[in-house]
Amino acid sequence: MQPQTKQQIRTAVRASRAARSAAARQQTRDQLTAQLISLSVQRNAKAVSCYFPTPNEPDTTGFTAWARTNSIDVFLPVARKDRNLDWARLSEAGTAGGLHGIQEPVGERLPAQILGQLDLLIIPACAVDEQGMRLGWGLGYYDRLLATLDTLPPVFAVIHDDELLAHIPADTHDIPVHGVITPTQTRLFSNYAG
Ligand SMILES: Nc1nc2c(c(=O)[nH]1)N(C=O)[C@@H](CNc1ccc(C(=O)N[C@@H](CCC(=O)O)C(=O)O)cc1)CN2
Ligand SMILES: Nc1ncnc2c1ncn2[C@@H]1O[C@H](COP(=O)(O)OP(=O)(O)OP(=O)(O)O)[C@@H](O)[C@H]1O
């Protein structure tokens, strides 16, 4: 995949994600579950944020199920009309479709600042480059979130292997992630010493 403009990258990734077979999706889910469990065990994480995947996104539900079974608190985003994110803890109360049709936990809405107290932030992305620059879907939710947190725990974006690109054009508001998780690797970027 030759990186060009942000919009061209988004179009290419959207198409390649849509073309994945059910078997490939299942394999991605299993491999990501293993990568995410290793990372949280290694970091002794007791509370993390994650995302509830759309049908085409890298599937994190194996990991969130494991986290719940192991008494790790999982916080998921709740999209607001003003394009900021609230957060809610995954619980027995279950989930319901939110603003973009994505499942969100039912229950108390918490402000973004609670993320500063978590051990690990696992976030969605369209693509990430070798410098840790992250591209989302263009609504700015996560750029705005990362910019507002006073304390930033380690932030890892989850993507497929072919979405780790050599270079993504960056705007001044773009905030790099500390690491990236793909089905085959968990990589820490050099911008982060932790
Ligand atoms: N799973 C998930 N939850 C999330 C996000 C996300 O990217 N993924 N968000 C991140 O901001 C926020 C909601 N904003 C969103 C913005 C765009 C799209 C969207 O439709 N994206 C792609 C399709 C994704 C796919 O199915 O592969 C698109 O633009 O076509 C979804 C959510 C909060 N929750
Ligand atoms: N810190 C910020 N404060 C206000 N607006 C912002 C901030 N960061 C990004 N934006 C706005 O959000 C919009 C989307 O930015 P960009 O294309 O970089 O998003 P993205 O990285 O694809 O999205 P996301 O953060 O949701 O994953 C832009 O119009 C940008 O001006």
Explain the overall architecture.
The structure is a single chain. This protein is α/β, with parallel strands linked by helices. The chain has one domain: Rossmann fold (3-Layer(aba) Sandwich), CATH 3.40.50. It is 26% helix and 22% strand. It has helices at residues 6-18, 22-42, 61-69, 141-148; strands spanning 47-49, 73-79, 85-89, 95-97, 103-105, 120-124, 127-129, 134-135, 155-158, 164-165, 179-181, 186-188. The strands form 3 sheets. A 7-stranded mixed β-sheet has the order 3-2-1-6-9-11-12. The two termini are 30 Å apart. The model has no long low-confidence stretch (mean pLDDT 95). Residues 1-27 are annotated as: Disordered. GO terms for molecular function: 5-formyltetrahydrofolate cyclo-ligase activity. Its EC number is 6.3.3.2.
